[in-house]
Design brief:
Elements: E1 5-7, H1 22-36, E2 44-50, E3 53-60, H2 63-74, E4 81-88
Protein name: BON domain-containing protein
Domain BON: 22-90
Organism: Micromonospora orduensis
């Protein structure tokens, strides 16, 4: 079972070191990387990870945000695949 990680409501706490599963660890890592990225930190992105596959959902303000979120997901060690369902608000 995985849990969606919504963004940008709160920044991820950096003190958590024990994770329930690899999928949870991957979601936290990606959430942290998106929070540090100026292009993504204010976007409404839901991150879910199932069996090392990242699922990105939500609406973003710019096409560049769709591309950058996908790039960060692919660049996260341990991710096998990315299902990018992000949509631009105006399109």
């Amino acid at each position: 079972m995985t849990y969606p990680w919504f963004f940008p409501d709160d920044s991820p706490p950096r003190y958590q070191t024990v994770f329930g599963s690899d999928d949870t660890r991957l979601a936290w890592q990606l959430l942290d990387r998106m929070h540090q990225n100026p292009l993504l930190r204010r976007e409404s992105i839901c991150i879910e990870v199932q069996n090392h596959v990242v699922i990105l959902e939500g609406s973003v303000s710019r096409a560049e945000a769709v591309v950058e979120a996908s790039r960060l997901a692919w660049d996260t060690r341990g991710v096998y695949d990315v299902n990018n369902r992000l949509r631009r608000l105006d399109g």
